[in-house]
Amino acid sequence: MRFRPRCDQRANCGVLFFVFLVPSTVVNFLWYASSNVSPNARKPLPSAILWQTSVDAYNMSLLNEVTDFTTLVDKTDFRFLINNRRCDDAQDIFLVIFIHSAPDHFQKRRAIRKTWGQERHLVDDPLRIVFMVGEVQGRDDVQKALERENYIHRDMVQGNFLDTYKNLTYKHVMGLKWVTYFCRQAKYIFKTDDDIFVDIFQLVTYLKGSSGLAPPRGLIMCFLIRNPYVKRSQRSKWRVSFKEYPGKYYPPYCAGWGIIMSPDVVFNLYLQSTQVPYFWVDDVHVSGTLAQRAGVNHVDFTNKLSVTEEEIFEWLQSPKLSRPYLFGHPDAEVDTIYALWNKTYWYYKRTGSRR
Ligand SMILES: *[C@@H]1O[C@H](CO)[C@@H](O)[C@H](O)[C@H]1NC(C)=O
Ligand SMILES: *[C@@H]1O[C@H](CO)[C@@H](O)[C@H](O)[C@H]1NC(C)=O
Ligand SMILES: *[C@@H]1O[C@H](CO)[C@@H](O)[C@H](O)[C@H]1NC(C)=O
């Protein structure tokens, strides 16, 4: 497209308008498209390049170069069935978010991609989002649809363990592994679930404000659950037997819908993950047991949030355009996520602020 320096006719003005407006979209698109490049997506193998590290938080020589890539907790035949190296195109990534999802949660992922998970909203502070899923059993149609979805969005990571709730610890550790291997340059790592709303603008502002220019270290920030009893009730889906976990209490651990970590914490949790026997309550295992072993202290952000359903709906229904909550409540319906985003978007658009 040729640039026209003058605008003496309506038609030319139109062209000028086009020239000035479109390129940012095109640039965004190219940037977006390039972030989707995923050479060798199905089977990335460890290589010298994978082992190089420019980030001191990840001391890759502490991992076994031969066996680590195919190890996941106690599983020694691990591999990625789907993988995307979304971070390869950028030197500086501000935030990488890995989202626990399930293979057939197509609508939930769609809602996130269309709302708060749009990476292009944060070009100044590059953001990458990936969805973590396990293997589908006996549902070829679901797997096919998943592959089609991934072909379009290139943001799925699938591991070769069955996608069941007793296998959630594999999923969680796969997230840590993926970051360790494929997104070491990210300054912050955020783990969440696919039924959560996040005010992504506020989150980035908040993180920038809390760490300043210094790289964060030793950070694990979440909605902290202190001195929790181990659930023994026969009726609970989360019932844990004495054989699975003999103690009466768990160590303090994070609610899994929002865990913010610094790179060194991700790496230390990942290092610990092969040292401790598998336990299936993933939040307890990863953000409790492994965190305790790694010697990291939690920062509780409970007082910074309001996450009850009532408060969220009150905010949504109020005719006033007020500052959104940082997170929407867990178990949000897809419609709630769209509505929250709509109001959040308008809030920032109107006020012109990102605080
Ligand atoms: C990484 O670990 C190796 C092996 O323990 C150690 O020799 C080396 O000093 C560590 N490097 C850094 C930068 O901490
Ligand atoms: C977890 O996944 C493995 C495959 O890696 C499978 O054999 C096992 O049955 C799954 N466990 C549960 C409880 O679903
Ligand atoms: C989105 O927000 C605007 C402004 O608050 C409102 O007028 C509109 O009805 C909302 N749309 C939906 C689909 O919620």
Automatic annotation (TrEMBL):
E.C. designation(s): 2.4.1.-
Keyword Membrane: yes
Domain of life of the source: Eukaryota
Signal sequence, renumbered to the chain: none
Topology in membrane: Single-pass type II membrane protein
Keyword field contains Transport: no
Cellular localisation: Golgi apparatus membrane
Keywords: Glycosyltransferase, Golgi apparatus, Membrane, Signal-anchor, Transferase, Transmembrane, Transmembrane helix
TM stretches of this protein: 12-33
Classification via PANTHER family: BETA-1,3-N-ACETYLGLUCOSAMINYLTRANSFERASE, HEXOSYLTRANSFERASE
Family recorded in the similarity comment: Belongs to the glycosyltransferase 31 family.
Protein name: Hexosyltransferase
Phylogenetic placement of the source organism: Eukaryota, Metazoa, Ecdysozoa, Arthropoda, Chelicerata
